[in-house]
Fold this sequence. Notes:
single chain; alpha/beta; GMP Synthetase, Chain A, domain 3; 17 helices; 24% strand; globular
Amino acid sequence: MNIFFNNSKIGLEEFDNNVKKLATVLRSKGLQAGGVVAILLRNDVRQFELIEACRYLEISFVPLNWHATGSELQHILTDSGASVLVAHADLASAAINELSEQACILVYPTPENILVSYNIKKQEKTVLESRCEDMTTLLENANPISTAIKPFRGIFSYTSGSTGRPKGIRRQVSQSQSDPYGVYEGLARTLLKLEKGDRFYVSAPIYHSAPNALSLCCIAARYADMYIEPKFDAEKFLADIERYKITHTYIVPTMMIRLLKLPKEVKEKYDISSLKFGISSGSAWPADVKKAMIDWFGPIFYESYGASEIGFMTLISSEEAIKKPGSVGKILSGGSIKILDDDKNELAVGESGSIYVYLPMFGDFSYTNSAENEPDERYQGHTTVGDIGYVDAQGYLYINDRKKDMIISGGANIFPAEIEAAMVEMPQILDCAVFGIADKEFGEKVVAAVTCQVGHSLSLQQVHAFLDGKISRFKYPRQLDLHDSLPREESGKVFKQRLKVAYAS
């Protein structure tokens, strides 16, 4: 295994040595079994070295969203009980005034390729030296830890908190269970279908559960190379496939839409024949986008319905997706799905309701700060994360939308994801997000926030004309707002709560 990052290559022996030195540093800062380290890094090999170091100390890691404010970060540090924060210099500098004086902050220099990708000014050490310790110096003076690897406590992730403060997903650890790290090694074969000599490419933000877990699958396998890119750029993605002969990648619908909207001459410029496997998780993949990607790259794509709480729950291949457009596949082996109404009654095949899933792969969990809500999220060992959908007669799952995003207008349930999937096909639209706002007559009305392609504009009437025959008229947006850009993460998630703030009055 080799890891390629920041124009350098790290081999397995060097990686393992770095991991053991990191474990020594973390132990010297008081981290012991059951402890928590918080990680505030952009895409960097250091993130995976830290995660591996946690295995020597029996500690959990909290990957932090680096878009968060200092006060949001401090909430997670306090709630999780993390006693050490490891950060890139620029991120630590931006948040440091809002972080508790009690926090032990260890800082890495921000790598050159990240500075360039995000147009960041190099951070002067004097800004941080009074509150932080330099990881480079600590590692230079550290000896590799001599203890053996312990059972993996894994990720301690936090939900997005779009309707309130983020809540932590704490894994239950039992002495009787086998090392959970073996799950990642198994998924490398069964989910990622990795073979010796394959090359996995990740450019989605690693603080998200899915790219984090899939990258760990590659590391656990120890026989495939990994290429870490600071951020996704559509043309560079194609160029990197050709340059490095990439075989596997994690890719989300937002990335696909940006690829599909590249000029024809750019699409045809690069040799992408080495790519044989792409997997998507998170937001649902619009059927038209999926078909267009399969037509371009071939039947190499898989979609998984996943959640931080449960893991990867379903899987569907390109061949299945063509036969079952809109489906996210069948439940993985050992799991089951129940579709329930608001009174917890099981619904018949084809009827939409809350999706409850049982899948013991990553073990049970509890939330850190919302125990009062958990009875609503559990049913006979099954858990829901708030999604609405249905199962067909063959057991294929279809997702309508997030329950919290559903719009109720004039008594009708309207799912924004369906409208967004139709609108994004409009040539003038670069990006869009649909949501509901209060309306005196109908309860809620549908609003579309749109970013147009360069040189284009758009009217509500044009949108209605394009949607004619694609979706029902009662689902049409009643208001269109044009934006220079939408508050969207690289992972594809739109912060709809931020868009709704303008309508709060």
